[in-house]
Amino acid sequence: MLFISWIYGFYSIFKGFNLFGFWALLLIPLWFVFCYFTGIPGIINVLRTRKYWTKKEFREGLIANFISASLIFIILKFANAEAIQFNFFIGGIITAFAMPKSTLISERMDDIKRQEDEKNKE
């Protein structure tokens, strides 16, 4: 699935060059930030691991990622790059499901353990 994510990313970059020329280079950092770290993948991954979050953490995670996802679409709107919004949306979905659920759960369990260790140190 990760391979598909990279292929779709390259396709989107080429589509950006076709639509916007070299201005598409400015979209590459946005792609990495909003399709790999935050935004749509964050929303999906928080939903996939909802059992491992407290209600407050779950709510805050969703709100933060919804704001982040909204921010990318606002940026694309003001940059007159609406034609590539769908690519960012689909790219985020593909990237989110490229990470196995077991890996997400393992990362979350590590975070919980680290929080408990820090709490015990105090």
Q: How does this structure look, described?
A:
The chain has 122 residues and is mainly α. It has one domain. The chain is 80% helix and 0% strand. It is built from 6 helices and no strands. The N and C termini lie far apart (42 Å). The relative contact order is 0.16. The model has no long low-confidence stretch (mean pLDDT 86).
Layout of secondary structure:
Layout: H1 2-20, H2 27-37, H3 40-48, H4 55-78, H5 85-98, H6 101-121
Helix pairs in contact: 1-5, 2-5, 3-4, 3-5
What's this model, at a glance?
The model has no long low-confidence stretch (mean pLDDT 86). The protein is 80% helix and 0% strand.
Oligomer: single chain
Query: How many distinct domains?
Result: 1
Mean pLDDT metric: 86
Tell me, what's the shape? Answer: elongated
Let me know the largest β-sheet: none
Low-confidence stretches: none
The helix count comes to 6
